[in-house]
Amino acid sequence: MEILGIDFGQFDLNAWLSEAWQFAGPKLAQSLGILALATIIYWIGIRILRRIERRVVTRTATVYDDLLVRMARRGFQISVFFWAAWRVAAIWTLAGQARFIAAMWIVALSIPISGFLGGVIFEIEQRLAPQTNTTLDDTALPMLNKVLRFVVVGVGVLIALEYMGINIAPLLAGAGVVGLALSLAAKDTLSNLIAGVLLILDRPFQVGDRIELWNAPKETGTWGDVVEIGLRATKIRNPDNLIVVVPNNEIMRRDIINYTASGSHIRLRIPMTIAYDSNEPLAKKLLLQAAEETEGVKMDPAPVVIVRSFGPSEVNLQLRVWIDDARRRRAVADLITARVRELFQENGIEIPYPKRDLYIRNAPDNTLTKAGDDAGKDDRHEERS
Asked: What is the pLDDT of residues 178-224, one digit of tens each?
């Protein structure tokens, strides 16, 4: 019988089955032996790891050994499975498939490694975050966790591709071109991200610190309290309860004035002016009295008053006081200034204002006489009218 050009009349099924068994029988037996051996190895290995976990891991307070045993267990399970599959493919002379299985083995092993590193960083975050008053570590550590996991798996993929004989140089070159294009398109965002990382590392201010604003809205306060430090921008609440979002790269380009970084107490320099004919010692005494009567002013170090400079019609004094709460610097300065004005008025200390005194020297007599005659004529003219 001939079907599709093949003469099945001369086909010997028994011979074909005999040849197939001779070819597949030993390989099938070896494959079953490999699977049985893998099962035994898996059972023994899991029992050993569980015993180690009961005798060692449970007796320690740290969780890092738990993470290590967990990584070892997952790695062992993955290795047993892929080893059995790799050996079976090699027995059946499937070289390409065996190489692919080995490459997938490498990628699979990178997953528990990345999980172990991520667990370590997570435990550090859980221990560190409650001990700090800033959210910087809450932002930086999760970002580091994700980046590290991705890098470990990415390295595993690259090693697997290299093992399979795939040239990764063109892939890296293409990734470099794509990365360059993305960096140019999002250079401002990348600049803010880099500045955010630098803020996390350098920490010129923390959440809750009071700093000076550079681009404050008009008719609002020029300072504010830091409420959030993100990777792209920093949020600052000004005294009018407005949230000002400042890009991180702009913060890194400017001088940062932090009023609370060195502690809650700072020194105020309050300028005052008095007229030249005022009693200067009395004015200094009154300035010190105003400082002593104001709540929030520290007496140690004691307030001092200095003569700062001389103006066109005034003597410029400066009152220097230490206050115990940097957040009340504007309020304390206002109270002191109002009290000084009251004391100056009560004691006759003149606060100068713009005025001019004109003195005429060596005026000609005929000019004065002519001016007097003209004035007299004007008076007579007014009388006639």
From this structure: 666 666 666 777 777 778 777 777 778 888 888 888 777 776 777 88
Tokens of 222: 């020029």
Q: With left for phi above 0 and alpha for psi between -120 and 50, is residue 46 left, alpha or beta? A: alpha
DSSP state of 63: S
What are 150-175's pLDDT values in tens digits?
A: 889 988 888 888 888 887 777 667 66
327-347 b/e with 16+ CB inside 10 Å = b? Answer: eebeebbebbeebbeebbeee
Rg of the Cα trace of the chain? 43
How many angstroms from the chain centroid is the CA of residue 145?
Answer: 15
Structure tokens at 108: 């699979």
Phi, psi of 311 (to 5 degrees): -105, -175
Both tokens assigned to 140: 């930086």
The DSSP result for 202-218, as a single string, is: H-SS-TT-EEE-SSPPT
Q: Are 215 and 247 in contact (CB under 8 A)?
A: no
Give 233's strand partners.
Answer: 247
Sign of CA dihedral 381, 382, 383, 385: positive
